[in-house]
């Protein structure tokens, strides 16, 4: 079947090209009956609009860019599900890109989306890198940006995350309540949220009058996954070789939590009999591990839904020349107790 054009529709319905174009763009300048008649004819004849031309005409692409660390991560896949759940009900389309925790790659993602004329960006950025300043300059030109998850940075924009400090505090307090005092915190180096989780861990120990030992805080480069497991095993082995060996471990990220169970088993340590384990994790497999993993769960899908609604709200206000209010939303985390701490 030959692809019909706006000119074909105009000829068929005996209206001007301008009227047809406005009707297909849902313009208020065309009355309801005319608009319905034109749209029904277009749909019946499989008319497909030229989005590039519409973008040039309206100044909008109806595309929203999303940048996350990695789609394969359980947390980010749930976050994207939430974003998609909202966007699919609108006229917007999503373009999803991955930074892979690489600063240069993240900058390239931002540049690609910006050069392709996306209307706004939802991003989970890599800590306080130069990219934050670049995003701020974009934001200051009235380009809508919503930060999700990693909200502890200097970017002044709408932000939606979780209460990382409180989540880490709850995890640590759970271990303390079980009688553990020699608690190792295994963490990363790059993401801004990690610092808040470390602070929650330290604050809980201090309030329970437990010394904060620098040797019990193990940080790793999470970008270099080829050596990660071996590096963790080496440093943990040194701690477990001491007389006052650790009796609990709190991991700061999904990746670390999911790897830790296997690492401890490889080291010949029984969970939770010899060492209790808890960590931030949104993995759907946490309950299937043996033993099942106690974790701090983050409402990732809800975070995504709120982020999507917020950027749509910002785009609507921008179109109407309304002032855009900046807010920071922090959702509650959930302590889920399973076998890795309770036996």
Automatic annotation (TrEMBL):
Keywords on record: DNA-binding, Transcription, Transcription regulation
UniProt cross-references to PROSITE patterns, sorted A to Z: HTH_LACI_2
Annotated HTH lacI-type domain residues: 4-58
Gene Ontology molecular function: any one: DNA-binding transcription factor activity
Classification via InterPro entries: HTH_LacI, LacI/GalR-like_sensor, Lambda_DNA-bd_dom_sf, Peripla_BP_I
One Pfam family it belongs to: LacI
Gene3D superfamilies: 3.40.50.2300, lambda repressor-like DNA-binding domains
Protein name: Glucose-resistance amylase regulator
Organism: Sphingobacterium spiritivorum (Flavobacterium spiritivorum)
Lineage of producing organism: Bacteria, Pseudomonadati, Bacteroidota, Sphingobacteriia, Sphingobacteriales
């Amino acid at each position: 079947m030959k692809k019909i054009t706006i000119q074909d529709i105009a000829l068929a319905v005996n209206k001007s090209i301008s009227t047809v174009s406005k009707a297909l763009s849902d313009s208020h300048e065309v009355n309801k009956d005319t608009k319905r008649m034109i749209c029904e004819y277009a749909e019946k004849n499989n008319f497909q609009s030229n989005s590039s031309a519409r973008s040039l005409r309206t100044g909008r692409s109806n595309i929203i860019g999303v940048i996350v660390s990695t789609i394969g991560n359980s947390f980010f896949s749930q976050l994207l599900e939430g974003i998609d759940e909202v966007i699919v009900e609108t006229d917007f389309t999503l373009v999803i890109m991955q930074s892979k925790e690489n600063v240069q790659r993240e900058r390239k993602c931002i540049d690609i989306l910006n050069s392709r004329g996306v209307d706004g960006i939802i991003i989970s950025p890599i800590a306080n890198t130069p990219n934050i300043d670049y995003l701020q300059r974009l934001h200051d030109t009235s380009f809508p940006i919503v930060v999700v998850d990693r909200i502890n940075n200097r970017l002044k924009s709408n932000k939606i995350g979780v209460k990382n400090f409180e989540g880490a505090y709850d995890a640590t307090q759970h271990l303390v309540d079980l009688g553990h005092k020699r608690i190792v915190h295994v963490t990363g180096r790059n993401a801004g949220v990690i610092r808040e989780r470390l602070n929650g861990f330290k604050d809980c120990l201090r309030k329970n009058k437990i010394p904060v030992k620098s040797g019990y805080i193990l940080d790793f480069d999470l970008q270099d996954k080829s050596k990660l497991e071996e590096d963790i095993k080496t440093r943990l082995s040194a701690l477990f070789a001491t007389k006052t060996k650790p009796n609990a471990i709190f991991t700061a990220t999904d990746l670390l939590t999911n790897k830790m169970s296997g690492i401890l088993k490889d080291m010949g340590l029984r969970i939770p009999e010899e060492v209790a384990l808890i960590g931030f994790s949104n993995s759907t497999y946490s309950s299937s591990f043996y033993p099942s993993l106690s974790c701090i769960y983050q409402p990732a899908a809800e975070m995504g839904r709120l982020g999507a609604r917020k950027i749509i709200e910002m785009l609507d206000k921008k179109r109407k020349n309304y002032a855009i209010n900046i807010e920071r939303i922090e959702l509650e985390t959930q302590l889920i107790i399973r076998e890795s701490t309770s036996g």
